[in-house]
C-alpha cells in the first residue's frame, strides 16, 4: 500500500491542536482501530499508535533514526547538539556506556534521603491550609533540585540552577524554539558546568560530575573518557529530559487521583500500593506521550509502506491504552499488574532516568498521601502544558478539606 491509499477517513490528529491534546484518547483509539499507520497531510508525518508497532519501531534504530531529534517541529533536519538522545547506535551506545559508568543505580538510590527531605520541606507548610498549587508549589520545584543534587550543585546555587532550568525549558506562547532567555540560560548553565568540571578535577567529590570526569570505557581505539563538551551536553540533556517530564508526572498524579477518589482511598489505606500506582499513572497518562523518529529507509508497517526520509511519531500514550496489550486499558487501577509499558521508550534509548523518575514519583505521592489523603480539583482551574512531546499541567490548584 502507498501513502495515497492509506485510508485515514475522518480521523484527524496532530499534537499541536489544543482541543485534541486536552483528551487525545478518543482519537488515538480510532487511530489504533482504523488507521494504525496514520498519515497527517498538513504536517506530513506518520503516526504509529498500536503497542506492538511502537515497541518494534523503538527497537529498530537502523530504520527509525533519532538523528533528527524527537520533536515533530524539528524532525526535518539533523540535530547538531552532541547529545546521545539524538544519536543512533553504535555512536549512541558508546556514549551511553560511558555515562552509565557514572549514572549508576547506586547513585540514584543514594538520593532517596534527600528527596524525602525535599518532599517534607515543600509540603509541610501546607498542613492546615485550605490548599496549594500541586505543580507550582511542589511538582515543578522538586525535579530540578533533585537533578542539581545528583550532579553535585552546591546548596547555595540550588535556586540559581533551578531558575536556569526553568528558563531553559520555557517557550513563549505559540513558539516551539527556545527564545533569547532560554538561550542565555543554556549558555549560563554551560559555563557553570564547565567551572564545576574544573573544580571537581581539582577537588574530587562523591557526585555525578566527578564520576563523569573519571568514567572510562575500552573501545576499539583504546581507553576513552568523556570530553568536556560531552559532559556539559550530558548535563544539559539531564536538565531537559529529567525535569519537565517528572513535573508532568506529578501533575497527572494530583489530577488522576482526584478524578479517581476510590483508587486514592486504597492508596491512603495501604501505602504499599504506591509503587504500583506510580506505574499505573505512568501507563495511564504518559508525561511524554509522543516521540519522533526519522526513517532512513522504506519500512512496511501493518501493510503500509512508510517511505525513507519520513517523519514518524511513536505514540507512547496510545500504545499504553492498546487493548491488545492491556485488559480494560481505559480503567485506572492502582492494583493492575503491569508487565511492560512504553512511557520510558524502549530499546537503545530506554530512559536513563526511569529509576529516578519512579523514585521521585513514589516519594512525592507517599509524602502527599501522608499529609493530605483527600483533595479536590476544579477542572476549570487546570492549566495545560502545550508542547509536541510533553503532556500534563503547569498549574493544578488542589483544595484541601
Ligand atoms: C516521568 C518521567 C520521565 C519520562 C516520562 C521520561 C521519558 C523518556 C523517554 C520516552 C525517553 C526515550 C526517548 C527516545 O527514545 O527518543 C527518555 C530518554 C531519556 N531520559 Fe527520560 N523520562 C523521564 C524522566 C527522566 C529523568 C528523571 C532523567 C534523568 C535524571 C531522564 C533522562 C533521560 C535520558 C538521559 C534519556 C536519553 C537516553 C538515551 O538516549 O540513551 N529521564 N526518557
TrEMBL record:
InterPro entries: Cyt_P450, Cyt_P450_B, Cyt_P450_CS, Cyt_P450_sf. Keywords: Heme, Iron, Metal-binding, Monooxygenase, Oxidoreductase. PROSITE patterns: CYTOCHROME_P450. SUPFAM superfamilies: Cytochrome P450. Belongs to the cytochrome P450 family. This is Cytochrome P450. It comes from Actinomadura fibrosa. The lineage of its organism: Bacteria, Bacillati, Actinomycetota, Actinomycetes, Streptosporangiales.
Amino acid at each position: 500500500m502507498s501513502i495515497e491509499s492509506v485510508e485515514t477517513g475522518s480521523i484527524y490528529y496532530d499534537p499541536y491542536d489544543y482541543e485534541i491534546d486536552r483528551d487525545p484518547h478518543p482519537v488515538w483509539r480510532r487511530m489504533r482501530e482504523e488507521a494504525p499507520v496514520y498519515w497527517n497531510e498538513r504536517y506530513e508525518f506518520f503516526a504509529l499508535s498500536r503497542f506492538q508497532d511502537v515497541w518494534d519501531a523503538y527497537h529498530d534504530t537502523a530504520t527509525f533514526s533519532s538523528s533528527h531529534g524527537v520533536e515533530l517541529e524539528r524532525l526535518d533536519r539533523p540535530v547538531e547538539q552532541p547529545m546521545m538522545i539524538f544519536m543512533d547506535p553504535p555512536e549512541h551506545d558508546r556514549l551511553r556506556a560511558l555515562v552509565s559508568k557514572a549514572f549508576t543505580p547506586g547513585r540514584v538510590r543514594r538520593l532517596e534521603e534527600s528527596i524525602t527531605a525535599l518532599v517534607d520541606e515543600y509540603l509541610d507548610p501546607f498542613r492546615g491550609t485550605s490548599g496549594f498549587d500541586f505543580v507550582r508549589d511542589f511538582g515543578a520545584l522538586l525535579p530540578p533540585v533533585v537533578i542539581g543534587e545528583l550532579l553535585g550543585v552546591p546548596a547555595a546555587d540550588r535556586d540559581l540552577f533551578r531558575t536556569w532550568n526553568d528558563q531553559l525549558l520555557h517557550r513563549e506562547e505559540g513558539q516551539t524554539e527556545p527564545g533569547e532567555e532560554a538561550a542565555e540560560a543554556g549558555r549560563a548553565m554551560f559555563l557553570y558546568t564547565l567551572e564545576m568540571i574544573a573544580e571537581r578535577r581539582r577537588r574530587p567529590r562523591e557526585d555525578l560530575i566527578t564520576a563523569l570526569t573519571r568514567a572510562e570505557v575500552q573501545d576499539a581505539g583504546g581507553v576513552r573518557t568523556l570530553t568536556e563538551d560531552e559532559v556539559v551536553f550530558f548535563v544539559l540533556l539531564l536538565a531537559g529530559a529529567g525535569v519537565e517530564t517528572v513535573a508532568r508526572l506529578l501533575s497527572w498524579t494530583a489530577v488522576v487521583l482526584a478524578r479517581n477518589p476510590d483508587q486514592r482511598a486504597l492508596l491512603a489505606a495501604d501505602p504499599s500500593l504506591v509503587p504500583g500506582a506510580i506505574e499505573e499513572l505512568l501507563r495511564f497518562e504518559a508525561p511524554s506521550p509522543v516521540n519522533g523518529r526519522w526513517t532512513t529507509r522504506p519500512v512496511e508497517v501493518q501493510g503500509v509502506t512508510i517511505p525513507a526520509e519520513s517523519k514518524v511519531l511513536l505514540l507512547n500514550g496510545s500504545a499504553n491504552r492498546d487493548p491488545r496489550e492491556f485488559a480494560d486499558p481505559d480503567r485506572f487501577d492502582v492494583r493492575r499488574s503491569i508487565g511492560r509499558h512504553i512511557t520510558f521508550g524502549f530499546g537503545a534509548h530506554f530512559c536513563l532516568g526511569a529509576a529516578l523518575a519512579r523514585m521521585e514519583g513514589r516519594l512525592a505521592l507517599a509524602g502527599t498521601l501522608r499529609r493530605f489523603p483527600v483533595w479536590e480539583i476544579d477542572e476549570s482551574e487546570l492549566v495545560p502544558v502545550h508542547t509536541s512531546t510533553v503532556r500534563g499541567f503547569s498549574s493544578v490548584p488542589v483544595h484541601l478539606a
